[in-house]
Design a protein that fits this description.
Layout (H helix, E strand, L loop, with lengths): L6 H5 L11 E7 L2 H7 L10 E7 L18 E7 L9 H19 L3 E4 L3 E4 L2 E11 L7 E8 L17 H14 L21 H20 L3 H10 L7 E6 L2 E10 L5 E5 L2 E5 L4 E3 L8
Parallel strand pairs: 1-2
Antiparallel strand pairs: 2-3, 3-7, 4-5, 5-6, 6-7, 8-9, 8-12, 9-10, 10-11
Helix pairs in contact: 3-5, 3-6
The structure holds biotin.
Biotin binds next to α2, β3, β6 and β7.
Amino acid sequence: MMKSLSPESIRKELHTKIIGRNIILLETIDSTNIYLKSLGSQQGPEGTVVLAEEQTAGRGRRGRNWTSQRGKNLTFSVLLHPTNQTQNVGLLSLLAGLAVTKAIRSSASLPAECKWPNDVLINGKKVCGILSEMVTSADNPPSIIVGIGINVNQTEFPEEIRETATSLFLESASYSASLKTFGSEILLPLKRDQNDITLCFDRVRILQKVLEEVEYWYIQYQLQRYEKIIQEWKRHCSMLGKTILFNQNGNIVSGVFADIAEDGALLLETNGTVQRIIAGDVTVVNPGDGYK
Ligand code: BTN
């Protein structure tokens, strides 16, 4: 039996002032992003978290869907009302990916990495996807809904993503196995669910850590410390400086991942010219490097 989530257990020992102070936990919903939007988000308290045990129409980037087994993972959305609206909103996506990466590293001791714009990978496989959506209206400044899906304890994935998706559980199992081959005693510093005979990750602890990281980096954003966010993001991305392929509306462009601009855009260098990429999917040319 997987331990179920509750707003009380999440708020207990959650070291934040804004993010996750208001938590709405749903059993089943189409999508937490859609739900938050339908609440008329712009009036809702900043930092509101909508969490679901099951999404029936989870949404991914670029019109894709997001599937997640009921009760095993984390699927939630966070409401933000950034004060510095204008050109740096793209950075919020990077920030969310960075927050999840750092949270996985510290709470699960796994080598998570950022992939532009906001995926999180472990050993080249996707463990987290993020969909940020802007909500605008005539009367209020835009708000941002950051939807985060983290594969925590799921062990089976649909055929089409089996090669590219992973979970914290699967990665910790393969990490243990690789350590065993070196004959070491396995003492992984993982926080497990103590009531469960089948070991699994404690979703409450992972979520708390993610929310704490989101708050820290969001405060940096509000203080306009954009360079600090970018530097930290770059430290957690091994794709930088590598030759990548970028899918531009069906056209594949190849170039070097040169840098990240202040607004979170990817700077792609092709034949001496630098192109700004603000949305899309990128792939490292040689997936042997660890990225797919
Ligand atoms: C992607 O990688 O394509 C983004 C996936 C985002 C999934 C999360 S799960 C919680 C939130 N609600 C949704 O419908 N989508 C996001």
